[in-house]
UniProtKB/TrEMBL annotation:
Listed InterPro entries: PhoP_reg_network_YrbL
Classification via Pfam families: YrbL-PhoP_reg
Recorded superkingdom: Bacteria
Official protein name in the record: PhoP regulatory network protein YrbL
Organism of origin: Sulfurimonas paralvinellae
Length: 205
């Protein structure tokens, strides 16, 4: 059993808390703190589905299974770190501190890459938002976006999850909702250009 304490703590949401894995700094442990295991069970089931499909984990935090801890059963997931080994910050963090149009354009380009990836790999993120996506810095100064939370089956009827058409419809709906919420994450002075860039990005896909 893994023992977790405050030194391992990263962050907490309404339902779960996240800790650095004591035995591997490149993994994290998600544990339920609300008493409601429904979200975790749903996510684990979908992760197992993705493992069977042998997807690329290039832009989604890799799932390693579950492990017992002193705080209950935990999901073991890849902990995304920058090239300086610091834990990567959320897209929400970067949108709130935007300082230039060039920086905004860089993130729009990265969002285009993320959308292509999700559609190519047919990965549905039910709770797609700027907090559940991190920006991973790399030595090439470009970096990439990585989804770290919020995954779930796209359809209630599991048979439909093996049909690309229905999965793509759900991904597209989720993406459109997400993309237009981004303007709430940055200064109002960028809203006009953000809208223009987002429209242009849709035309590139």
């Amino acid at each position: 059993m893994i023992t977790l304490n405050d030194t391992h703590f990263i962050a907490a949401g309404t339902n779960r808390a996240c800790y650095v894995h004591p035995e591997d700094p490149n993994k994290c442990l998600k544990v339920v703190i609300s008493g409601n295991n429904k979200e975790s069970h749903r996510e684990i089931s979908y992760y197992q589905f993705l493992l069977k499909r042998d997807i690329s984990w290039a832009m989604v935090a890799r799932f390693y299974g579950t492990q017992a801890s002193n705080k209950g059963e935990a999901e073991v997931v890849e902990l995304i770190r920058d090239n300086d080994d610091n834990i990567s910050h959320s897209l929400d963090h970067y949108f709130r501190i935007l300082t230039s149009e060039d920086e905004l354009k860089k993130f729009i380009d990265l969002l285009i890459e993320l959308k292509r990836y999700l559609f190519t790999e047919l990965i549905y993120v039910k709770d797609l938002n700027a907090v559940n996506i991190v920006y991973q810095k790399s030595s090439n100064e470009r970096g990439k976006l990585v989804v770290i939370d919020g995954l779930a089956y796209p359809n209630r009827f599991k048979a439909l999850n093996n049909i690309d058409f229905f999965t793509k419809k759900k991904i597209n709906k989720s993406w459109k909702h997400f993309i237009w919420t981004l303007k709430k994450r940055c200064s109002s002075k960028y809203h006009k250009n953000l809208k223009i860039l987002l429209i242009e990005s849709e035309n590139q896909l």
